[in-house]
Design goal:
Number of domains: 1
Distance between the termini: 24 Å
Helix content: 40-55%
Largest sheet: 4 strands, mixed
Order of helices and strands: HEEEHHEH
Number of helices: 4
Amino acid sequence: MLAVKNRIHGRNVFLRIFKSGKTIRSKYMNLNYSPIRGKHFKVAVIVSRKVSKKAVIRNRIRRRIYELIRQEFTDYANGYNLIFTVFSNELAVLKTSELKKIIEDILKKVQ
């Protein structure tokens, strides 16, 4: 799981990123991002009830994205606040390699 220091907390931070940040869209999710100073990064994953009524599925999607970012994409994420907004419940059952490719494609556009 991603460390607490690397998670976005607080409504004002979310609003600032949504208002002044940039957006990258894909089939399954959006990425809102804004640059920050330093070599650290902060991430949030938003999965609404529209994606799935079941908390188990929403939490599975959230955990999978956090874990992939922690394991594979810390170099891409350094220097940014990232908010992933998920649109599809297919991410819960998608193969890990396919999910990894989707996240990688999105994060490459940030650079």
